Amino acid sequence: MSQVYGAIHLLRLFAKMGPMLAYTALDEKSLQHVLMHIQDFLKYMVTNRSTLFNLQDYGNATPEYHRKVQ
């Protein structure tokens, strides 16, 4: 699925994860542990950004695509 959606969609998940974590039953120590792993993963993405984020992977959707998704 990562080849279909790409790293940008994973970043969108991370952006929404903060508010979602507020609704978990995690204690403070567990929450800090999860946040540490998220930060490590985001650092990995920054380090490997030239491989993970490629402008050529994105394009404009065709009118046919827009008709199908409406």
Automatic annotation (TrEMBL):
Pfam families: MRG. Residues 1-59 form the MRG domain. The keyword Nucleus applies. The keyword Transcription regulation applies. Keywords: Chromatin regulator, Nucleus, Transcription, Transcription regulation. One of its GO terms (biological process) is regulation of DNA-templated transcription. It is found in: Nucleus. It comes from the Eukaryota. One of its GO terms (cellular component) is NuA4 histone acetyltransferase complex. This is Jg1952 protein.
